[in-house]
Amino acid sequence: MTDLETLRSPLALVAHRQIHSDCGGATVFCVVLADGFIVDCGSDGYSQKRAMILAEAVNAFGPDKFLMRKGGEA
User: Fold this and answer.
1) CA–CA gap between residue 51 and residue 26 (Å, rounded)
2) Beta strand residue intervals within 1-74, DSSP E
3) Smallest Cα–Cα separation from 37: which of 63, 19, 72?
4) Is residue 63 scored above 70 in pLDDT?
5) Which are the contacts of 22, defined by CB distance < 8 A and separation ≥ 6?
6) Predicted pLDDT of residue 61
7) In the predicted model, what is the mean pLDDT of residues 36-59?
8) Taking 70 as the threshold, does the pLDDT of residue 56 lie above it?
9) C-alpha angle with apex 45: 42 to 51, nearest 5 degrees?
10) Separation between Cα atoms, residue 9 and residue 17, nearest integer Å
11) What global pTM score does this model have?
12) Which of 26, 29, 54, 60 is most buried as measured by Cβ atoms within 10 A of its Cβ?
């Protein structure tokens, strides 16, 4: 898959962003869901693995399992 095909796919993707300030910098890992929602997984020593596990879980179960439904709907 090319980069654009991957971005357009229903896959949850692991990404990171760099934060820089007067106090220093950090790498923050996150999971980008197919609808564009970003789940921040932190910047500690476990954040990259946490993001990878979350993305794998979302991709393993498929986006249908994570659809928001109104109360009472199956």
Assistant:
1) 16
2) 13-21, 24-32, 38-40
3) 63
4) no
5) none
6) 85
7) 94
8) yes
9) 50
10) 21
11) 0.75
12) 29
**Cα(26)–Cα(29) distance, integer angstroms:** 10
Long-range CB pairs of 64-72, under 8 A, 24+ apart, other chains included: 66/33
pLDDT confidence of residue 69: 59
Q: Which two tokens stand for residue 9?
A: 């796919």
Please tell me the distance from the alpha carbon of residue 54 to that of residue 61, in angstroms, as a whole number. Answer: 11
> DSSP characters for 45-62?
TTHHHHHHHHHHHHHHH-
- Specify whether the CB–CB gap between 30 and 16 falls below 8 A: yes
Amino acid in position 36: G
Q: Could you tell me the CA-to-CA distances from 51 to 17, 24, 42 in Å, in that order?
A: 13, 23, 9
How many C-beta neighbours within 10 Å does residue 53 have? 14
